[in-house]
Design a protein that fits this description.
The chain has 457 residues and is of the alpha/beta class. It has three domains: 4-209, NAD(P)-binding Rossmann-like Domain (Rossmann fold), CATH 3.40.50; 219-306, N-(1-d-carboxylethyl)-l-norvaline Dehydrogenase, domain 2 (Orthogonal Bundle), CATH 1.10.1040; 308-448, 3-Layer(aba) Sandwich (Rossmann fold), CATH 3.40.50. The chain is built from 17 helices and 14 strands. It has helices at residues 15-25, 38-44, 56-63, 74-78, 106-117, 135-144, 166-171, 184-197, 211-242, 246-254, 275-288, 292-319, 347-357, 370-376, 390-394, 414-420, 436-442, and strands at 4-9, 29-34, 68-71, 83-86, 123-127, 152-156, 176-179, 206-209, 328-332, 361-365, 384-386, 399-402, 426-429, 445-448. The strands form three sheets. The chain has a six-stranded parallel β-sheet, sandwiched between helices. Helix 1 (15-25) packs across helix 3, helix 9 (211-242) packs across helix 11 (275-288) and helix 12 packs across helix 13 (347-357). The longest helix has 32 residues, at 211-242. The termini are far apart. It binds nicotinamide-adenine-dinucleotide (NAD) and uridine-5'-diphosphate-glucuronic acid.
């Protein structure tokens, strides 16, 4: 008999790891994770988990079957739960009003109605997905529209984990944010959710706020992080014109304790499923409230991100004598960042599309994301191959493009790779990852982001 029953609807990048960590630290609670995607649940119940995260396998194998369960019977699991976390996806709307900007809340609304239909007693419903500010009001209206007179208390508890470091972020978060209503029932629900995190998070790191502040803070945190990436990338373009070095500039600027050193790494721009969608959502909300200047301000963060990727493709074409038709180019990395197999909004997609449109032949290598690459580029089938071995990918290639910051790319034998490539051999390091001087000494022409090229030509 468990002391409390927690249900999580949505077994994705957030629901799976978050619930595994809760189950690990709260052995007296039962944690059930449900999803409509049967294949995903089957993999959560296997040795081949549906997502790759360092440290995740160990935790899941320790707690699965003890107090962590993955299931597909969503309706049946609802009524037994005291607290329901909802971490379904909230992508950008692709149709109708707000298409291309607003968050698509259809999965959330379906879930709210499922909760309502299958409940016979009060519950706490926790917003784990990232949602537009004031969503709790709309969800509340749906949940309150019941004749059973059941009370549902909505609490906002956005997730700040980053992929690739999800377990570390969940185990030792900078903060946990929980927003609830000021009412007695709101504060009682708040306490219940705080109690979960208190099992392993120091109390001073558990922040409480109003529901609206909590919902908005999540969007703002992502917008600020993305803004830093676009800020440094905009300056990288200026560095390339002036022979300043972006790494030196970032270091000098980041050592100001008011600015700080994190998120100042210039590269191909940000990818991932959330930064773009959350900024689009923020601009949509601002516009809806008549704040068009605010919306324009944040739109620029996205504009610089696309510009950075276009710029990089242009540099490759220009350096390779203005034509890459039929040339083999090795792409090292397709995931949107290292240590994940996720390719959603990966900068590699736009870079590869740009090269494929110029009729290059690509050999794509990634330690974890080749399935994603095949899907993301399916309209170019026949123009690219997937290679599990980086040496084969680079063999007979005219150039290597570093698109993801996987640490294993640093220790490859580039002298061996150089021997097998067409000459002149180019490296375009879109992540400023490799030892450029060493590569230059081997014989490569090296182009990087925001730093003077080391060119043989
Ligand atoms: P995801 O697509 O990996 O997972 C969502 C899951 O919800 C899917 O498996 C889907 O099948 C399931 N689902 C949808 N409707 C359902 C329903 N009615 N019943 C049961 N299951 C249903 O998404 P994710 O990356 O885990 O993101 C989830 C939310 O968390 C989003 O709002 C996102 O913005 C936010 N978020 C994501 C991250 C991240 O790193 N991925 C970090 C913080 C916050
Ligand atoms: C991001 C946030 O960091 C999380 O706090 C948040 O919870 C999450 O979004 C979300 O809401 O989904 P994530 O997208 O997983 O996490 O990964 P980040 O580490 O933030 O990297 C995002 C992108 O920015 C990557 O493509 C990365 O390569 C790029 N980046 C990051 C840079 O180009 N330079 C940097 O200095 C930092």
């Amino acid at each position: 008999m468990f002391k409390k029953n927690i249900l999580c609807i949505g077994a994705g990048y957030v629901g799976g790891p978050t619930m595994a960590v809760i189950a690990r630290h709260c052995p007296e609670y039962q944690v059930v994770v449900v999803d409509i995607n049967h294949d995903r649940i089957m993999r959560w119940n296997s040795d081949n988990l549906p997502i790759f995260e360092p440290g995740l396998d160990e935790i899941v194998s320790a707690v699965r079957g003890r107090n962590l369960f993955f299931r597909t019977d969503v309706d049946e699991q609802i009524d037994g739960a005291d607290i329901i976390f909802v971490s379904v996806n909230t992508p950008t709307k692709t149709f109708g009003l707000g298409a291309g900007k607003a968050a698509d809340l259809q999965f959330w609304e379906i879930t709210a109605r499922q909760i309502l239909k299958n409940s016979s007693k009060p519950k706490i419903v926790v917003e784990k997905s990232t949602l537009p500010v004031r969503t709790a009001a709309a969800i509340g209206r749906i949940l309150d529209s019941n004749e059973k007179k059941i009370h549902f208390e909505i609490v906002s508890n956005p997730e700040f984990l980053a992929e690739g470091s999800a377990i570390r972020d969940l185990e030792t978060p900078d903060r946990v944010l929980i927003g609830a209503r000021e009412t007695d029932s709101g504060q009682a629900a708040l306490k219940e959710v705080v109690d979960i995190y208190k099992h392993w998070v120091p109390e001073e790191k558990i922040l409480t706020s109003s529901v609206w502040s909590s919902e908005l803070s999540k969007l703002v945190a992502n917008a600020f992080l993305a803004q830093r990436v676009s800020s440094i990338n905009s300056i990288s373009a200026l560095c390339e014109k002036t022979n300043a070095d972006i790494e030196e500039v970032a270091k000098a600027v980041g050592m100001d304790s008011r600015i700080g050193p994190k998120f100042l790494k210039a590269g191909l721009g940000f990818g991932g499923s959330c930064f773009k969608k959350d900024i689009l959502n923020l601009t949509y909300i601002a516009e809806n409230y008549g704040l068009s200047e605010v919306a324009r301000y944040w739109e620029q963060v996205l504009e610089i991100n696309s510009y950075q990727q276009r710029r990089f493709v242009d540099i490759i074409i220009k350096q390779m004598f203005n034509t890459i038709v039929g040339k083999k180019i090795a792409i090292f990395g397709f995931a949107f960042k290292a240590d994940t197999g996720d390719t959603r909004e990966s900068p590699a997609i736009n870079v590869c599309r740009g090269l494929l449109d110029e009729k290059a032949q690509l050999a794509i290598h990634d330690p974890k994301a080749l399935d994603g690459a095949a899907k993301d580029l399916e309209e170019y089938a026949g123009q690219f191959i997937l290679e599990s071995d980086p040496y084969s990918a680079a063999s007979k290639a005219h150039a290597i493009v570093i698109a993801t910051d996987w640490s294993q790319f640093v220790s490859l034998d580039y002298a061996r790779i150089f021997e097998t490539m067409e000459k002149p051999a180019f490296i375009f390091d879109g992540r400023n990852l490799l030892d450029h001087r060493k590569l230059y000494q081997i014989g490569f022409s090296v182009h990087r982001i925001g730093r003077p090229p080391l060119s043989k030509l």
